[in-house]
Amino acid sequence: MPDPPAVTRLPVEVELLFELMPCNALRSSQYAGPGAHPCAYFRSWGTYHSYDYDADEPPPDASIVRPSHYTGRMTPLPEPLSGCRKAPILAVGINPNLPGWWPDSHGSLTPDFDSVRQYAHYFRHRGVFKPELPDDAYRAYGGGPDDDPLTGTPLDVPRDARGRREIPVREQPQRMYLVYQQLLDALGAELGLDGGTLTVGEDLSYGNMVACASAKWTTRADPHDPALPPMTDDQRAGIVGECFRTRRHLLRQMFQSLPAVILVFGQSTANAFTGELGDRLAPAPGPGTSMAELMATEVRLTYGTLDDGEELDARVLFAPHPTGHPDDYARARPMLVGQLLDEARSGRLGHDERIGRLGRPRGSCSFCPLLGIGPCPYAEVLTPLPGGGPALLADGSAPVAAEKRTQLRLIDGITERAAPVAEVWAHTDDRED
Fold it and tell me: pTM of the full predicted structure?
């Protein structure tokens, strides 16, 4: 069993960035063995076209489309939470998608940032997009049917006078993220808000139980895509044990964010989520509880009791996977919107006129100002946990330490009381979704 992550004096939301960015490289390239670390499995998905910003500093505004240059091919970096750390809605998946695997999106780009601040900015602000090369540029650089993640052949991008391989970059909308936006649009309309008031990245964040990407989460070979690399059962157990249970990447972020609503799409993700957090769910779904039953049940996740006596919880909403089973999702969508509206009308997900968005959950956040990627637009409305405060480290470590102690105390016991990984994750393959 690897050692748990060191507890630093950094706020959890910042500490996670410094842990996650090098995590797969440390597990894969600098692992002492014996044998390969389970997380080295993600290297079997090949390498992907990558880019870096021309500027050394993080962008001065929210856009992730900047003057950029091609850097070659690389394994994608692990992904932290995307969006505002205090967004009141959190969508949870098993692991990030990998659009560059599929032939029609081989021109996708993965960020190759040296700067943790650029890494932070990218995941704070990418919204419903990932970056890609425009089609004409991709073809001009040699991209096409033979450009495959497993070949490792870089594009032929000419160098300029400075030696840089400048490229155009555009936004590639992601179907799943657009579904999130459509849900927010529907909720906003029911609340009488103007179109576009609620947005992905500000009112809804998204994260994953495992931080590294794959085109599918599966232990089974795919007869329609023979090159697709399945995990072994031991690799899956090792990956989940490392990322979710020992390092607790998602749990630590979730208990800093403390969202009022958690969205879980698809039977596979529901099986993993309810299996891992069943000790905190009421009523606790049994193993393999059907999606229809999960949707029809008011399930709440208990965060715990604060030092001032306030009890914190979240509504967990389930629905069929919108891209895996679009017809089933379309039938379920009206119920899902109605459940979101119920939470809004109850005051748990209310609109805050001071910020023009959904209200922020309890707790402080130092992510944007401490990393220097912009001011926090919600600083004036955040309510610290008991003993904490929205101060930055420069203002003293006591408020940060108090909040962090509370967050870690609330997490205690979750992974320890879960059933063995092999049992919890036995029915989480994408093909079962």
Answer: 0.95
